Amino acid sequence: MSSDDEKNTAKGEGNLDGESVNDLSTVSSSSEAGPERADQADHQEAQPSAFDSAENMVRDDDASTESVQRRPSLCRPALWLAEYESPEALMHAAESVRDAGYEKWDCHTPYPVHGMDEAMGLRPTKIGVISFLASMLGVGSAVLMMYWMNAVDYPIIVGGKEPGALPSMGPIVFELGILFTGLATVFGLFHICRLPRHHHPVFYSDRFASASDDRFFISIEAADKQFDVVKTRSLLEGTRPSFVELVEEEVL
Amino acid sequence: MTTSNLIYEIGERPLLPEGTKLNDITETVARVTETKAPRGWWLLFIPSLFLVGVLFASIGYLVTEGVGVWGNNAPAYWAWDITNFVWWIGIGHAGTLISAILYLFRQKWRTSINRFAEAMTIFAVMCAGLYPALHTGRPWFDYYLFPIPNQMLMWPNFKSPLMWDVFAVSTYFIISLLFWFVGLIPDFATLRDRSKTPIRRLAYGFFALGWRGSHRHWQHYERAYLILAGISTPLVLSVHSVVSFDFATSVLPGWHTTIFPPYFVAGAVFSGFALVMTLLLICRAVFQMHSIVTLKHLDFMSKFMLATACMVGYAYAMEFFIAWYSGNDYELFAFLNRATGPYWWAYWSMITCNVLVPQIFWFRKMRSNIPVMFVATIFINIGMWFERFVIIVTSLHRDYLPSSWGMFTPTPVDISLYLGTFGLFMTLFLLFIRWIPMIAIAEVKAALPDAHPHHSGGEHEHGALIAAPVPAE
Q1: What is the pLDDT of residue A45?
Q2: Mutation test of the interface with chain A: which of B148, B158, B185, B211, choosing the one with the most A Cβ atoms within 10 A?
């Protein structure tokens, strides 16, 4: 942990120091040559050098061997990743990113941090609608199933009750309603979150592993309309992160 | 960030020791799955595995020979099998109660024990499900229980409480499993991110579903979790109520009672809490979890057991009162026979273990004395087993006609099957604590005092100062 911390401060300070001002100017000149937009990435094989240089500038305080090792020939920026030490810092940073008008960005936290919905400007979740519809479907299909099986297809008269008597359906109607609701809620959650998804670019960052431990991250995706390698970076750096990193993905 | 900023309700103190960091929780919980198993684990695992062998041998013998190898016979057609079924399924109820009902009531102390209790629910329901499945006599025809087309061109009789039971128990199992798994996803991600070997990374990564702690996901996740808690709460109340309908809708003296549903639910929670506590005390000692499962948690659980013990005691008294008050001779006889008949020892064991023993929890000293709590929980579990035995066997063995009275004696297969389910439960449970985070890492983190930014004006201004937003042009 301690060695990690040293690394963290070394890199983080490096990024936040005045020396990075130079990099910024270099990067901005190169990014003018080719705007980094994900939707244009398909045409970008012609100018990979722009991205390479941008990446090298950002990481120029790193050992160059590491970046060479990790990066194959064609890469494009996937997202900016900023790391924070505390939920407070994350929340204030999230408010800045929200106010700057970004849309395709996210916070990554080891546990659900309360108040982040407002800080990120998220609309309330609609998952309850799925659950409600499913519960009604469960209740309805339970009644229809029992009525059809015990009263229509093979009428069974038990205890002098009518074959299609409703009261004795109560428990199974309830249980099937619950069963449908539970299944729909869980699979609806997976659908809304597009899970399972094992290949998200945030995982390319070595530091991201601590997002499930004790660190808080903001990622701004290159797919966002406002994304700009330089401006997005300066926005994130203004939020006092402990580390900022440009994560790249391969272009095939 | 300092504790002086925190607002506690009156008398409220932090659940975890001051200064617990997020990483401490990850380390404490994840360490268990990453280091070698302690000797205590093996000492429990090997006998448990042996008992699983006993279970399979018993099932094999039972299926080959038929249910006649059990002691069940006229008039006690239900005996240990149904006793064990109800006992096991009752054990499971504490898990859902802790994970769902206490969640709805925002009882944050549950976070240290809920994972554990939910796992117990699932394994207990698996053990419970074995008994009715085998009791059908020809388990290969168990699919008749479900509404699927079969060669007889017949459908199940949905007016039978036994059918309700099939739906209640299978729904309970599926929903508990989903609830458990949804809670586990972030913790599997934690283990995935800590993995040192490719196998661990693949295995935990597979179950983590690529979880990346995204707040856009957390938002839906928390609501989904709330909905699951919301539906599990009536579900858990319904399951043991439906189990009690198996008895209450019959016309047998001693079974035909309206108090059964709440009485069964209280008993189920009671026994479940006792078993959670038994296992928790062992794991806490073996895996050094004293900082996460504190005496305060144990104190809360003891109080729950005291409350449910009193409810169960009330139900025992009320059953007797109604038996007398109803003026029904058969009913009164059934209850007098319980207390003074040939099975008097079972009845009085039940009263001692379930009503008298838990009264020690009135005293704070006893609620903080671990050996006392451990012994008391064992007693409660024995008592709750006797409760089901008393309800089932004493009601059946002497009903209306004295000419058809009889006695029930268990056979070796009854005993070996019961021991076998213990083996199955313990094996699954030990595998769980070895490979799956036994404490909900993300939930405990969220319950830390500093976990959430505090919404006070000063705090906000301060934050705005350090995080001066950069205008995006």
Answers
A1: 40
A2: B158
